[in-house]
Amino acid sequence: MKQNLIDIAYLVSGIMFIYGLKRLQSPATARKGNQLAAVGMLVAIVATLFLQELLTPVQMLLGIVIGSAIGAMFAKRVEMTGMPELVAAFNGFGGIASALVAGAEIARFMAHNAADTGGNELTAVSAITVALSILIGMITFTGSFVAFGKLSERISGNPISFLGMRFLTILLVLVSIGSMVWMAMEAGAFPAVSDPVMYGAIAIAVAGALLGILLVIPIGGADMPVVVALLNSYSGLAAAATGFVLNNTALIVSGALVGASGLILTNIMCVAMNRSLFNVLVGGFGGDSGSGESGGGASTAGLTVNSTTPDDVAILLSYANKVIFVPGYGMAVAQAQHAVRELAEELAKKDVIVKFAVHPVAGRMPGHMNVLLAEANVPYDQLFEMDEINGEFETTDVAVVIGANDVVNPAARHDKSSPIYGMPILNVDHASTSIVLKRSMRPGYAGIDNELFYNSNNQMLFGDAKESISAITNEVKQL
Amino acid sequence: MLENLIVFILASIIGSEVISKVPATLHTPLMSGSNAISGITIVGAMVVAGMVGDAWAMWIGFAAIIFATINVVGGFMVTDRMLQMFKKKD
Predict the structure, then answer these.
(1) Which of A3, A294, A377, B15 could form an S-S bond across to A260 if both were Cys, CB 3.0 to 4.6 Å?
(2) Domain limits at A418?
(3) What is the distance between the alpha carbons of residues A314 and A173, in angstroms, rounded to a whole number?
(4) For A342-387, how does the pLDDT look when each residue is reduced to its tens digit (9 = 90+)?
């Protein structure tokens, strides 16, 4: 009877997760959707706590209290610019939790085995699910924390590779498969010798941890959004694998939802960069230092750029009919989003049509720019996706690029030798005038030179984005 | 085992259908929110840690509960923080 109630509770929470995610289809209902999913989680936890016969409910509650305090602290303290690394860290916690649950399942099996009760038989199939749960969980754990380190610049964002790295990766995969087979064979022969199961599990945990590191270190900073999305998917798969271990429908359903979500986002990111997932994972594309190494393409040596001043830009913007802002990660770094919103409001007062064009891979995670602009109180109906707005640049007087680079490089359209050839870009060069706010002439994340800067109708405004925008706003106010 | 697989596949299909319609504007909250949902592992941690009197299983499960709760509580809270900022023009 109790078990039936638990299953019904899990069904209810699964339905709430699905409808919660469905409400994320519109910004107007999204907040309610997230709250619905949170209630669904509460239902699952409360049902487990009260209906499952737990021997140690006090410890369980203590663990929940400690975890809640830590999680709430992270959630409250994080800056919106730091969202990518926070999500990466949360992914990692989810991964290690799944691996630990599988580990606890092994401990449980061994305890039964030692007591010779035989009540908890570990079949070959469940040994494989345990092994998979540990493997995916550990890959998610270490991979996410390497991604966390790269995103928060605690470790270099440059791609790292060394001689024999691919060989080592293959070796570790073989070790994992071997241990998995070993565990399955030994577990099947019940009453099993528990040692092989334990040693096999430890070997898989170590191999998974190393694989997670090897997965992320060769990936350059520019490809980080893809990796964060992929690890998000892995954290879901890890939860689903744990569900298979415990025969728990709630875990399988939720894990599948998250796995699907992560895969869809990964795919969107790859399409937006015109690269295959394999190509991203092999890595080596783009660092964070912009070392100035030109990645081929037409030589820009000898070409000159037009540089401008905030006063001139202010005049240009004030008398424009339509202005499109193109924000990139540089805007977030300079914390210029509030200044940009103020400028947009001033222009709106002068009856200038203001829109924002957001490229899918702008920022360090999918949708990052939208969150930053929302934080600065830019209404979401002013934000446009690439496909919606690209046709409008033809009729735009001024396109203002703030801290974006590769996503507006026209070389992607025609220069076959460019590393970003084929990547869909925002057609900033189709606007009557384009203005690029930039610190210096250093190349962008992909480490390549930008043709746009040398166009005759482009003007560069050098300096800190926040200061430049504020100067423009002050001038606009006086006009 | 087969039943579990059927549930997994059906849930994946529902997930794909629902999530592919989420606009790019909400992709960051989608990630952090779905990430919080993957913290459902907490339920597994409670089951595995609380049902046998084995000390090892209990303490490993205890650690899993802490990590999974960070994921759940932190994930839902930070998603809520983000979503309350999304406003229409008034």
Answers:
(1) B15
(2) 310-478
(3) 58
(4) 999 999 999 999 999 999 888 888 888 999 999 999 998 899 999 8
Q: A352 and A262 in one domain?
A: no
The sign of the torsion formed by the CA atoms of A97, A40, B12, A268 equals negative
Q: How many domains does chain B have?
A: 1
Of A267, A274, A264, the C-alpha closest to A424 is A274
Q: Does A118 touch chain B (CB under 8 A)?
A: no
Token pair 């990796």 is at which residue? A227
- Same domain for A387 and A468? yes
Domain for residue A293, yes or no? no
- Select the residue of A34, A239, A368 nearest B33 (Cβ to Cβ): A34
A103 in B contact zone (CB under 8 Å):
yes
Residue B8 lies in a domain: no
Enclosing domain of residue B31: 27-85
Same domain, A228 and A188: yes
A159, A253: one domain: yes
Contact A55, B55 (CB under 8 A): no
Q: Is A57 on the interface with B (CB under 8 A)?
A: yes
A244 in Cβ contact with A129 (< 8 Å): yes
> Which one of B5, B16, B20, B25 makes the best mutation probe of the A interface by having the most chain A beta carbons within 10 Å?
B25
Cβ contact (<8 Å) for A108 and B57? Answer: yes
Question: Do A315 and A352 belong together in one domain?
Answer: yes
% of chain A residues with pLDDT over 70? 91
A255 and A370, same domain (yes or no):
no
Residue A125 lies in a domain: yes
DSSP state of A391: G
What DSSP line would sit under chain B, residue for residue? -HHHHHHHHHHHHHHHHHHTTS-GGGHHHHHHHHHHHGGGHHHHHHHHHHSS--HHHHHHHHHHHHHHHIIIIIHHHHHHHHHTT-----
B53 within a domain of the structure (yes/no): yes
Q: Which chain B residue has its CA at the smallest distance from A119's CA?
A: B52
| pTM given for the model | 0.88
Asked whether residue A14 is assigned to any structural domain, the reply reads no
Q: Which residues in chain B have their CB less than 8 angstroms from residue A104's CB?
A: 45, 48-49, 56-58, 60-61, 64
Q: What is the ipTM of this complex?
A: 0.95
Which one from A223, A406, A429, A449 is the annotated catalytic residue? A406
Q: Give the residue on A whose Cα is nearest the Cα of B79.
A: A34
Is residue B1 domain-resident?
no
DSSP string of A328-343, one letter each residue: -HHHHHTT-HHHHHHH
CATH number, domain at A456? Answer: 3.40.50.1220
Q: Does A30 touch chain B (CB under 8 A)?
A: yes
What is the number of structural domains in chain A? 2
CA distance B62 to B45: 7
Whether A406 is catalytic: yes
In a domain, A83, yes or no: yes
Question: Residues A232-252: pLDDT tens digits?
Answer: 999 999 999 999 988 899 999
Let me know if residue B15 belongs to a domain. Answer: no
Q: Tell whether B6 lies on the interface with A, counting CB pairs under 8 A.
A: no
User: Is the Cβ pair A366, B27 closer than 8 Å?
Assistant: yes
